[in-house]
Specification:
A 7-stranded mixed beta sheet has the order 6-12-11-10-9-7-8, with helices on both faces. It is an alpha/beta fold. 39% of the residues lie in helices and 14% in strands. It binds pyridoxal-5'-phosphate.
Length: 423
């Protein structure tokens, strides 16, 4: 399709958008009385209007039933988390039993490392991407030290090539083969938080497994954004947060995937708690741990129902729409945003920005600002464009297909142009 950088054309695309009615199902913050153009669904997704109802339901049950709510509310709390597994499994391409919701992302990665990072004298190295999200770096370093190893030796980073802004799959594969039988684990952010790159997870997973390593993925920027086939790709594990593209609310619970070949095992190394033991016998309060047959075996505590409620509300929307429709709109709206950016670049005389996101991408375009940098970012924020700033000079634009419109992209272009001309 040939795009045009006009309001009429953007509105025409909105008119053809099968998801257009979902925009009204989210709350938008306002600047100067006008709804913002929201580009930070990759950081904190907007609040779905129906989330309130799900939270109120729990509050009412608590008020009216107190402890009886565990078993006698409409959605009993003791197995509330189970309602999230089936819709979430579809989002990440897993079997329902391979998915659970618990804790938060970094906590879950630590828990999963207990199971999937079992260093031996020979096989103890971990491959990750250079400049992984800081929490992942701290998590990996502390795990390695916890095993009495030196992060400088045990952590092997795949670097981008000199002068390039993205990782090459062949470089990841080469590193995997180089480390070979010393490799215990590959753990990479499947969609990079900084440049928006989508890694070739299938190929990398296969390569890691071929040398005998475990392979896990941090999908903080992947879940709800890109097509995932965790089961078919044969990943050992994955974890993601829910407050970005999954629109579940600030700091909300994390999802985990554990491949079915690791399920229903009593002798697997794992940190355990009472919510991981079999439901049927849990309240017999026996000292023996009988693992749940699914990924819930990794659950430690009884579920934080108040925070799972908005996540469940959001998942209901993913069920209605499906990842296929979201991805179809994503591809078109991101292509339109890219087109608008190029048009604005042509219309302004200074070379002010550069898209550093490679073609393997989801909804995020990372834009390197030359020259005006922070002052242009401040101008955008003051004028109702919510984006974020990443050092040294990058803004990230992630038009979430659930609620961003083509008109937003056009209006953003106009504000950007004015910003370039005035700051
Ligand atoms: C790629 C990535 N990994 C890990 C985290 C940490 O998440 P949490 O604070 O929920 O542990 C984030 C948070 O934004 C992230 O983007």
């Amino acid at each position: 399709m040939k795009f045009e950088n006009t309001l009429g054309f953007a509105q025409k695309l909105d008119g053809q958008d099968p998801l257009r009615n979902y925009r009204n199902q989210f709350y938008f913050p306002k600047v100067d009385g006008k709804e913002v153009i929201y580009f930070t669904g990759n950081s904190l997704g907007l609040q779905p209007k129906r989330a309130q109802k799900f939270v109120d339901e729990v509050m009412t049950d608590w008020k009216e039933l107190a402890v009886e709510g565990h078993f006698h509310s409409d959605k009993p709390w003791w197995d509330y988390h189970e309602r999230l597994a089936a819709p979430l499994a579809k989002v990440v391409g897993a079997k329902t039993e391979e998915v659970s919701v618990m804790n938060t992302l970094t906590v879950n990665l630590h828990l999963l490392m207990v199971t999937f990072y079992r260093p031996t004298a020979k096989r103890y190295k971990i491959i990750c991407e250079e400049k992984a999200f800081p929490s992942d770096q701290y998590m990996l370093q502390s795990q390695v030290r916890n095993h009495g190893l030196d992060p400088d030796d045990a952590l092997v980073e795949v670097k981008k090539r000199e002068g390039e802004n993205f990782w090459r799959t062949e470089d990841v594969l080469q590193k995997i083969n180089e480390v070979g039988d010393e490799l215990a684990l590959v753990l990479i952010g499947g969609v990079n938080y900084y440049n928006g790159q989508v890694f070739d997870m299938e190929t990398i997973t296969q390569a890691g497994k071929a040398v005998g390593a475990n392979v896990g993925w941090d999908l903080a920027h992947g879940a709800g954004n890109i097509e995932l086939k965790l089961h078919d790709w044969d990943a050992d594990f994955a974890a993601w947060c829910s407050y970005k593209y999954m629109n579940s609310g600030p700091g909300n619970a994390s999802g985990v995937f554990i491949h079915e070949r690791h399920l229903n095992k009593k002798d697997i190394p794992r940190l355990e708690g009472w919510w991981g033991t079999k439901k049927e016998t849990r309240f017999l309060m026996k000292p023996e741990f009988e693992p749940m047959a699914n990924a819930d075996a990794w659950q430690l505590s009884n579920p934080p129902v108040l925070s799972l409620a908005p996540y469940l509300a959001s998942l209901e929307m993913f069920e209605e729409v499906g990842m296929e429709a979201l991805i179809e709109k994503r591809d078109r709206i991101v292509a339109y945003l890219e087109f608008v950016l190029h048009e604005i670049d042509k219309e302004t005389d200074k070379a002010t920005f550069e898209i550093i996101t490679p073609k393997d991408r989801g909804t995020q375009l990372s834009v390197f600002l030359h020259g005006q940098g922070k002052s242009l970012f401040d101008y955008l924020m003051k004028n109702g464009v919510i984006t974020d700033w990443r050092e040294p000079n990058v803004i990230r634009l992630a038009p979430a297909p659930f609620y961003c419109s083509y008109e937003d992209m056009y209006r953003f272009g106009q504000i950007l142009k004015k910003g370039i001309q005035t700051v």
